[in-house]
Write a structure and sequence with these properties.
The chain contains twelve helices and 17 strands. It has 425 residues and is of the alpha/beta class. It binds NADP nicotinamide-adenine-dinucleotide phosphate.
């Protein structure tokens, strides 16, 4: 039986210009080498440092990425450098030339998504970035195409592999924070600047990108609450374990009853019945709740050379097929909803003054092994305002998972009224 030629794999490999040959770039190169018929060939490679020892002959490398962007004999460009400022310059230059580009840089996409959309609309280029969110988990295209018209109620999950690795090692092996972080870096899970992972800026960027595809909201990353684990101590894991809970950094995108969309990233105590409980080490997971489709869970490697390169390859294939994101839900007038309160446990040193966190109502307070634990509701905007100060003072904040809407009258300290009755878990 003969198949229509459109269904047969193309024999002509597309020429790829690769900008960046680190963990991801090298992973893509090696992955293409191992496939019998990858459909792509890395024709030119640009890197930054002429002194660095490489795994390929020196003549394979050049040091001016702009030359690749200007080379029209290259069919596709892959930008996988570790510098979001230069990445935006490269990708912008390429899109203004109408080129087809793949990036893995979540910080750059989250910060500049409106500009990147305008450049694609004005010049006809295409940008795909599946590898920017949760490594090998195919979540962006799932939200953008499969759930394009499904009203979603929530998207949540573990979006950062290196902090999840650190938390797993600390809890399961009793490894010290600094040692677990060094291991995550040595294994290629951590960003070049580990603050991005540990202060939760990296999962916040990913949450911002998913908000665009899941809910049509493009928040400014700086406006989104991000609490990290830099101040975590063994006592925090021990207290969570008393109730059988683990601590994970959980990103949450929620539809509120009034239609508003809220986005936040914070350490959270996770119970054994949560699909996130068993997600360990560098693994990531995304939970999607659809009004009609119901609950879904995707789990996979959120970082690392081959898993991330595999997502880049998926985008190259999508570009070959003429795919573009639809952004079907995009609403430029939608604003980030912040009229929420989170139930949190604020842990400080008992010998220090209690941190100046304005709880809504009297917090439940206890002293354990020289540490003060205060549990109660705190407004989203308060946590957002205080997060840098709390981190600087070594105070650790972990959510219980419970969220309430603030009452219409925000002066009501007891969260009374109809809006306060709504509870998310
Ligand atoms: N690693 C992961 O697991 C992972 C997962 C998902 C997404 N990402 C994203 O993927 C991107 C790359 O990460 P990575 O881990 O592969 O970084 P990396 O290992 O630090 O490698 C960065 C590469 O970029 C090159 N580079 C930097 N500035 C450049 C410039 N101006 N012109 C040309 N080349 C330049 C570096 O050149 P030299 O070799 O000369 O130093 C290096 O080859 C980042 O945006 C990251 O957030 C990474």
């Amino acid at each position: 039986m003969s198949l229509p030629s459109a269904l047969l794999p193309s024999t002509e490999p597309l020429r790829v210009g690769l900008i960046g040959f680190g963990c991801v770039g090298q992973g893509l190169y090696n992955l293409l080498e191992r496939l019998p018929a990858p459909g792509f060939t890395v024709a030119r490679i640009a890197v930054r440092n002429p002194q660095k020892a490489r795994s390929l002959p020196p003549e394979r490398f050049e040091f001016r990425a702009d030359a690749l962007i200007e080379d029209d004999s290259l069919d596709l460009l892959v930008e996988v450098i570790d510098d979001p400022v230069e990445a935006f310059r490269f990708v912008g230059l390429a899109l203004r030339r109408g080129r087809r580009v793949v990036t893995a840089n979540k910080a750059m996409v989250a910060r500049h998504l409106p500009a990147l959309l305008r450049q694609q609309a004005d010049y006809g280029g295409t940008l795909l970035y599946e590898a920017a969110v949760c490594g090998s988990i195919p979540i962006i295209r799932t939200l953008d195409t499969y759930f394009a018209t499904e009203p979603l109620t929530a998207v949540s999950g573990i979006f950062n592999g290196s902090s999840n690795y650190v938390l797993t090692q600390m809890r399961a092996r009793g490894t010290a924070y600094a040692e677990a972080l060094a291991e995550a870096q040595a294994r290629g899970f951590a960003e070049t600047d580990p603050t991005l992972d540990m202060a939760a800026f990296d999962p916040r960027a990913k949450a911002v990108i998913l908000a665009a595809h899941a809910f049509g909201l493009i928040p400014n990353p700086a406006d989104v609450l991000a609490l990290g684990i830099e101040s975590i101590a063994p006592i925090d894991l021990k207290q969570a374990a008393l109730a059988g809970h683990k601590i994970k950094i959980v990103a949450r995108l929620l539809t509120l009853p009034d239609g508003g969309i809220s986005v936040l990233v914070a350490p959270q105590r996770v119970a054994p019945d949560s699909p996130l409980f068993a997600v360990e080490d560098e693994f990531n997971a995304v939970l999607v709740e659809g009004t009609f489709a119901g609950p879904h869970a995707l789990r996979g490697r959120g970082a690392g050379s081959f898993p991330t390169a595999s997502a880049v390859l998926a985008d190259l294939n999508a570009l070959r097929a003429g795919f573009r994101y639809a952004y079907a839900k995009l609403d430029p007038h939608q604003a980030l909803a912040t009229d929420l309160a989170l139930e949190v446990v604020v842990r400080s040193y008992a010998r220090q003054r209690p941190p100046t966190v304005e709880f809504l109502g009297e917090p439940y307070a206890e002293i354990v092994e020289g540490y003060r634990f205060q549990t109660g509701y705190v407004a989203y905007t308060t946590l957002h305002r205080l997060c840098d100060d709390l981190r600087a003072d070594g105070v650790f904040v972990v959510g219980t998972g419970a969220i309430q809407l603030l009452p219409d009258d925000e002066t009501d300290p007891q969260l009374s009224g109809a809006r306060a009755a709504v509870r998310f878990q």
